[in-house]
Amino acid sequence: MEIDYKDHGKEPYVIDIEKATLENDNYRTTLWTGEQLQLTVMTIQPGDDIGLEVHEGIDQFLRIEEGKGLCQMGPTEDNLNVEVEVTDDSGIFVPADTWHNVTNTGEGPLRLYTIYAGPDHLPGTVHPTHEDAKNDPNEH
């Protein structure tokens, strides 16, 4: 199955999510944006991270498909009282309004997909690099 890396939101869509995640080389690619749910695939380079963030009113699920990292979560930016090493097949559940970050601690790319309930990025968002995401005026 060939992966079409565009946002297919609000239309029925079936995808090989593992293949889409493992073949994605962008920092972030949004593949589906609905009214209450959003799917993105991400590739975090060694030493880089998602960036410490909080999603107001939005729950988040992340699944690590490849690589090694450190997940940190907590009630405030300065109190990340949960620290867990994550690897292939790890699932991370981030409650709404929880500060969190995932850092690539491995030697190769950290590849994951994430589901937001509801959407967090504009439909069709693609960030080839972490720097592009940081500089996007539509990101928080």
What does this structure look like?
This protein is mainly beta and 140 residues long. The protein has a domain at 26-44 and 52-114: Jelly Rolls (Sandwich), CATH 2.60.120.10. It has helices spanning 17-23, 130-135; strands at residues 28-33, 38-44, 59-66, 68-74, 82-87, 91-94, 99-104, 110-117, 126-127. It is globular. Strands 6-3-8-2-1-9 form a six-stranded antiparallel sheet. It is built from two helices and nine strands. InterPro entries: Cupin_2, Flavonoid_dioxygenase-like, RmlC-like_jellyroll, RmlC_Cupin_sf. This is Cupin. Residues 41-116 form the Cupin type-2 domain.
Topology of this protein?
Blueprint: H1 17-23, E1 28-33, E2 38-44, E3 59-66, E4 68-74, E5 82-87, E6 91-94, E7 99-104, E8 110-117, E9 126-127, H2 130-135
Antiparallel strand pairs: 1-2, 1-9, 2-8, 3-6, 3-8, 4-5, 4-7
Structural key phrases:
single chain, 140 residues, mainly beta, Jelly Rolls, six-stranded antiparallel beta sheet, 2 helices, Cupin, Cupin_2, RmlC_Cupin_sf, RmlC-like_jellyroll
Ends apart, CA distance between termini: 34 Å
Percentage of β-strand residues: 35-45%
CATH architecture of the domain at 26-44 and 52-114: Sandwich
Could you estimate the helical fraction of the residues in percent? under 10%
Residue ranges: pLDDT <50 for 5 or more in a row?
none
Strand order of the largest sheet: 6-3-8-2-1-9
CATH homologous superfamily annotation of the domain at 26-44 and 52-114: Jelly Rolls
**Quantity of strands, as a count:** 9
What is the average per-residue confidence, as pLDDT, rounded to a whole number? 94
Radius of gyration (Å): 14 Å
Q: Helix/strand/pairing class, anyone?
A: mainly beta
**CATH fold-level name of the domain at 26-44 and 52-114:** Jelly Rolls
Tell me the name of the CATH class of the domain at 26-44 and 52-114: Mainly Beta
